[in-house]
Amino acid sequence: MVLTDKQSTAPHEPGATPHTPGATRSLGDVVKAYVALTKPRIIELLLITTLPVMFLAAKGLPPLWTAVNTLVFGTLSAGSANALNCYIDRDIDAAMRRTRRRPLARDLVPPTNALIFGIVLGVLSTLGLGLTVNWLAAGLSLAANLFYVLVYSMILKRRTSQNVVWGGLAGCMPVLIGWAGVTGRLDWAPVVLFGVVFFWTPPHTWTLAMRYKEDYAAAKVPMLPVVATERRVVMESIVYTWATVLCSLLLWPVAGTTALYPVVAAVLGAACLWEVHRLMGRVNAGKTGVDLRPMRFFHWSNAYLALLFLAVAIDSMLV
């Protein structure tokens, strides 16, 4: 993830306690700041897509230590990517209300320390996966990390409104890593689930960006909701949501699931489509801004992905 070494002097959110340079902080505060660099809530979402794929690959319970090592070192890999992203985006984080509480924006961690921390986590995660799982899983994890840092964070994010479409490829990699961790190879089933996450990512991210449009505009990040009309954003979200649902149903014939999975996938998909079309309905009714309630779809899409992958895991136990 990427470059500059000057401490942020951005204003802090109301209610936040600014860090005073030179002030003594407890070990707990320091640890908390470094953990925050890894963006634990984002890591949770990545793990939700990793473990169920391991069940699918094993056609039941995956080997315990393979699963544990994949999740532990996968967590370190994602933490590395996120810490390096915080280093690269510290100027953006300081300019956005939503991210002003992050450690670098509040001067809780020196930028150089964050850079070193991210690199060390990346090295440990790659070696850990290679030595305890297999080198295919390690290579895929390293590729995802490098793509997120070098391609998304350093190039795409600040240059194109399609940043999250192609940058989202890194977030799709955990399904390949989980499968490779169990089987030592790749197959069409994880590729289908890779596609699900790929198509799911843009509308999920765009609806969040609709809510924080002014933030992204102030930080000069050309997210689609910043540079396009709300109608266009919602129309593209509808297209990607349909692609997500259709791709999810492909897993049934490709992986040979039981009837449980396609039923759950169809129900969840119908609910997701209903919500995104309701969003278009509000656009057609002339509503705009916060009145569109884009966060309804954002929160539902989180639940959709978690429940869909839970269905993958449960179905795998029934085969």
UniProtKB/TrEMBL annotation:
Annotated spans, Disordered: 1-24
Signal peptide: none
Residue ranges of the TM segments: 42-58, 64-88, 108-129, 135-156, 163-182, 188-212, 233-252, 258-276, 297-314
Enzyme class (EC, first level): transferase
InterPro entries from the UniProt entry: Protohaem_IX_farnesylTrfase, UbiA_prenyltransferase, UbiA_sf
Comp. bias intervals (Polar residues): 1-10
Assigned EC number: 2.5.1.141
Database matches in Pfam families: UbiA
Annotated catalysed reactions: heme b + (2E,6E)-farnesyl diphosphate + H2O = Fe(II)-heme o + diphosphate
Keyword set includes Electron transport: no
Pathway the protein takes part in: Porphyrin-containing compound metabolism; heme O biosynthesis; heme O from protoheme: step 1/1
Record's keyword terms, sorted: Cell membrane, Heme biosynthesis, Membrane, Transferase, Transmembrane, Transmembrane helix
Gene3D superfamilies: UbiA prenyltransferase
Extra facts: Carbon 2 of the heme B porphyrin ring is defined according to the Fischer nomenclature.
Function text: Converts heme B (protoheme IX) to heme O by substitution of the vinyl group on carbon 2 of heme B porphyrin ring with a hydroxyethyl farnesyl side group.
Family under the similarity heading: Belongs to the UbiA prenyltransferase family. Protoheme IX farnesyltransferase subfamily.
Name assigned to this protein: Protoheme IX farnesyltransferase
